[in-house]
Each structure stands twice: as structure tokens, then as C-alpha cells.
Design a protein that fits this description.
This protein has 130 residues and is mainly alpha-helical. The chain has one domain (6-129): Rossmann fold. The protein contains four helices and four strands. It has helices at residues 19-29, 46-59, 75-84, 103-129; strands at residues 6-9, 37-40, 66-68, 89-91. A two-stranded parallel ribbon has the order 1-2. Helix 2 packs across helix 3 (75-84) and helix 3 (75-84) packs parallel to helix 4 (103-129). It is globular, with a radius of gyration of 15 Å.
């Protein structure tokens, strides 16, 4: 999509750079003009990213379908939390990195994400009530 806008998120610095800064750099290296990239670099976790990205999209008046992109394990939770935050999100296709991962780690990542989906869903539900 030649007019797509990219919203990069993640505020936990690693090696003095946030995840959003790393993604911004990668997109610019891939030839995406800076004017088509929005940076959200305050979120400390996935749930905060969903809330902050939803707020940015609402402020722009643009809640059109969003394609979320993350690794295969994390992507279902990203899409789910964006939907709970009011964004019509769909999972983007991603490469299958399981071929590069040891089977024991694959199970760990699946279990971690299932637990996180339950925790984040409950936390978002409590936030709506409060």
C-alpha cells in the first residue's frame, strides 16, 4: 500500500534505544518516508501500547482497519488488545520463526502469551469499570 501509515510502538529502552526507535530506523532504511511513520515511544508493555496506539489513531480520526505486526507468538495478543481498545485490528502475515527456535522455547512462548492474554484482558476489563 503506497499510502500506508506505520505506527511503531514500544518505550522500553534496550541498549539505549526504544523498540519504537529501532522500528523507525528499520522502516526508514527500507525507504518508507518519515512523514508516513508515527512513533509511540512511551508504552512500557503491550497493554499500554494498545491503549496509546488507540488514542493516537482516535486523535487522528483514523480507526480504519489496522494491520498489527509482531512475532508469531505475540501477534494474537497484540490484535486482541487493540480490539479491546476499540481498534479494528487484523494480524499481518509474518514469517514463521519457529523453524529457528528450539521446541522447548516454542512451548514456553505459547504458554507465556496465553497467560498474558488472560492477565491483560482482565486488567483492561477492570480499567473500563474503574
Amino acid at each position: 500500500m503506497p499510502d500506508a501509515v506505520f505506527l511503531v510502538t514500544g518505550g522500553q529502552p534496550r541498549a539505549h534505544r526504544t523498540e519504537a526507535a529501532v522500528m523507525l530506523h528499520l522502516l526508514e532504511e527500507a525507504g518508507i518516508p518519515r512523514a508516513r511513520i508515527i512513533v509511540e515511544d512511551k508504552a512500557a508493555n503491550t497493554r499500554a501500547s494498545a491503549y496509546l496506539c488507540a488514542a493516537i489513531l482516535r486523535a487522528r480520526g483514523d480507526l480504519s482497519p489496522v494491520f498489527a505486526c509482531s512475532d508469531r507468538f505475540h501477534l494474537p495478543r497484540c490484535v486482541w488488545l487493540l480490539r479491546l481498545a476499540g481498534v479494528r485490528a487484523t494480524a499481518a502475515r509474518v514469517p514463521d520463526e519457529r523453524r529457528q527456535m528450539r521446541p522447548a522455547l516454542w512451548g514456553f512462548h505459547v504458554a507465556r502469551e496465553i497467560a498474558a492474554i488472560v492477565y491483560d484482558t482482565l486488567a483492561m476489563g477492570l480499567r473500563r469499570r474503574g
